[in-house]
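EI: anyone free to look at a 330-residue chain?
SC: sure, send it
EI:
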Amino acid sequence: MTQTAVTPPSERAVRKAAPGGARAPRRSGRRRIALPYLLLLPALLLELLVHLVPMLMGITMSFKELTQFYIRNWSEAPWSALDNYTVAIDFDAPVGQALLKSFFTTCLFTVVSVGLCWFLGTAAAIFLQENFRGRGFLRTLFLVPYALPVYAAVITWAFMFQRDNGLVNHVLHDQLGIGDSPAFWLIGDNSFWALLVVSVWKGWPFAFLTVMAGLQNIPRDMYEAAALDGAGVWKQIRHITLPSLRSVNQVLVLVLFLWTFNDFNTPFVLFGKAAPEAADLISLHIYQSSFQTWNFGTGSAMSVLLLLFLLVVTGVYLLLTTRGRKTSDV
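SC: here you go
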């Protein structure tokens, strides 16, 4: 007696719903590939509207003789070819000399600010890795400058740097007796140091937060093994902590560099529309060249040159760090 194999109803339903057998997985695969692009579409549209379109408009304006006479309709301004760029990089003329000096001031300010932010953030993150009473409170306290709005924090510092009734001079001059008279912090040469203090105070908590997150990925067994081998705290930091944080520090330093070099809010709120010569950062300098002289073409050319400089520095930095990482891995 022969037996006939009976196909279960569930299998028949699957075959009817997906004839051919391979089409259903192919459709699901296409959907899986298309899903990330659909999720990224809103961000791409916002990026296009908020950044790319204004950037293209700025590049177009840099090739126009755009002054106050063409504010109502900037598209009718006559083309100036490369004249705006020639004026910006003519370092024998006053405009080019002022831009070059502002560029060097910004470079010095950025190097010192980024270095201090990284050092303070890394030191605080390593210190707070150990378990002790009050660690959670200190972590929260260190993140307060990063959580405060920029305008509220910088305005508070502006009041503290006042010459006659500011807290800084009250502590340094009245309480500690430093200096023959209260110092001017918002004008003159001291304005550079005032801006640096505010920038570091505002930026180092981000470095602290980033490094603290990176430290969570370092196994504690490595420190215990190093301690058994007789390695002290400094050797553990040098041979375990810092090498393990190399990839984190590469991204951190790049982000801090871009943020600090392009920082406009801090000097604008601290000094107003016209910064002192010692604290004339290039972002505020471009603003002054555009909105005080009403020469938007030259200001746009300066902005494009700044963008090209940052792109070159970023590309070289990524190339060197990537090559260094591959060499160390080998």
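EI: The radius of gyration is 29 Å.
SC: 👍
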